[in-house]
Amino acid sequence: MPFDTFVWEKISGFRLDDLASAFPFSARLAREQGWSKAFTLKAIEEYRRFIYLACTAEHMVTPSEEVDAVWHLHLTYSQSYWKDLCRDTLERPLHHGPTRGGAEERERYREAYGQTPASYEAAFGVTPPAAFWPKPAARFAPRSLRQVDCSTHWVIPKKPFKSALAIVRRYGLPACFLAASTGMAIAAGKEAEFWGMNGTQWLIFGAIATVIAIAALSKKKKDNSGSGCGTGCSSDSGCSGCGD
């Protein structure tokens, strides 16, 4: 599809910051997301590009989490979003709604997100920047997000301790079983029996319990990454939803 210069000029000229505001949109976005000013301004530019794709691509497009964060905040500026952007700039609605969940929806959004980079590159002539458009596996990886007041709490990334924590989570329980059974076996060695079992029986019990614990902890975690966000515009039908 040829690049629509008219549509892009309208979108690229759309201003999210109110120059008369002491706390403009970009400043609020940077504070809420913990982004630098430079990263925030680039994210806003990627949001503009996403809007262009939503209005021109011939398939549903899905934003990255970074672009979706800009979209989420913009929706709270209801007059700017619905009146200035949708009514006056795009001349069509651009809706944002939750996914219905489930495997079918997950696959639908993964597919849409997988198609989005190709449309991006075709439209703008460059590969989508990885900082704002990660691979689908990273985009749909399980998340556990919470709001944290950084003025009262420390936020320490898990990554430096990931290996150690993984070992503790995976083998901590089996190690406890093994240590406990070994201790019981030693104690039973000094007496005829300990809780009705001799030392050999305690060691056998510990070995079986350890194998069961390792097997249980080794089960693949359920994929709960069935969230996504997608939209596709047309001048007559508006847009489909976007999921969190």
Detailed description of the structure:
The protein is mainly alpha-helical. It folds into two domains: 5-141, no CATH class; 159-217. 56% of the residues lie in helices and 2% in strands. It has nine helices and two strands. A two-stranded antiparallel sheet has the order 1-2. Helix 2 (25-33) crosses helix 3 (37-56). The longest helix is centred in the last third of the chain and has 29 residues, at 162-190. The two termini are 29 Å apart.
Beta content: under 5%
State the helicity in percent bands.
55-70%
Q: Count helical runs.
A: 9
Structural class based on helices, strands and sheet pairing: mainly alpha
Distance between the termini: 29 Å
Give the H and E element order. HHHHHHHHHEE
Shape: elongated
Blueprint of the fold:
Layout lengths: L4 H8 L12 H9 L3 H20 L8 H12 L1 H13 L12 H22 L11 H4 L22 H29 L8 H19 L15 E2 L3 E2 L5
Antiparallel strand pairs: 1-2
Index terms:
mainly alpha; 244 residues; elongated; 9 helices; 2 domains; disordered C terminus
Concise synopsis of the structure shown:
The chain has 244 residues and is mainly α. It is built from nine helices and two strands.
